[in-house]
Specification:
The protein has four helices and six strands, in the order E-E-H-H-E-E-H-H-E-E. It is an alpha+beta fold.
Length: 162
C-alpha cells in the first residue's frame, strides 16, 4: 500500500492521506508547504502556515490514532490521517482529520480561549498559539465518525471571509 496518497482534484487544493507516524507527517507537512509556495502564498504567510501545519499534524499523530509513533514501522496498526490545504487569493484553509475518537465539545474551549492559557496545564498551549495565528480554528467530528477534523482558516490582509 502507498504510504502517501495525494489528491489534487480541486483547483488550489492539495489533499494528503498518510500513515499516523511522525516521519510520514513530516513528508505530508513538506508537501503542503510546497503546495502553498507553488500556488503563490503571499510573503510572510509561509511561516504562519508552517506553524499551523506542524501543530495540527503533530496533534493528530500524537492524539488521533497514531499513538505518537516516530516511524511508519512503529505503527501497531495502519492508521491513516488526512490533511487538505486550500489556497485562494483571499487566504488559505487547512483541514486535518484524525482517527482517534474524541469529543469536539471537550476541545472547543481550547480553540477560542479567553485570556492566557494555564501554564501548569499540559493541554491547550498549542491551540492557544494556533488561535492567535488564524482567523478561525474549529473542531468537528470527522465525516467517518471515528475521529476529529480540525480546520484552521487564515485570511490575507484585506481579504473577505470564506
Amino acid at each position: 500500500m502507498n504510504r502517501l496518497v495525494i489528491d489534487r482534484a480541486k483547483p488550489g487544493s492539495l489533499g494528503v492521506k498518510f500513515p499516523a507516524s511522525h516521519d510520514q507527517g513530516i513528508l505530508c507537512r513538506r508537501l503542503l508547504e510546497s503546495h502553498g509556495r507553488d500556488v503563490g502564498l503571499p510573503e510572510g504567510e509561509e511561516s504562519v502556515l508552517q506553524l499551523v501545519t506542524s501543530e495540527l499534524l503533530t496533534n493528530a499523530i500524537d492524539h488521533g490514532g497514531g499513538g505518537g509513533a516516530r516511524d511508519f514501522k512503529d505503527l501497531a496498526v495502519d492508521v491513516r490521517l488526512h490533511a487538505r490545504l486550500t489556497v485562494d487569493r483571499e487566504g488559505w484553509a487547512l483541514e486535518v482529520t484524525d482517527r482517534g475518537g474524541g469529543d469536539p465539545e471537550e476541545l472547543r474551549p481550547f480553540l477560542d480561549p479567553d485570556g492566557l492559557p494555564d501554564l501548569e496545564d499540559e493541554r491547550g498551549r498549542g491551540f492557544f498559539l494556533l488561535a492567535q495565528s488564524v482567523e478561525s480554528l474549529t473542531v468537528e467530528e470527522s465525516p467517518a465518525g471515528d475521529g476529529l477534523t480540525f480546520r484552521a482558516e487564515r485570511r490575507y490582509d484585506g481579504g473577505s471571509e470564506a
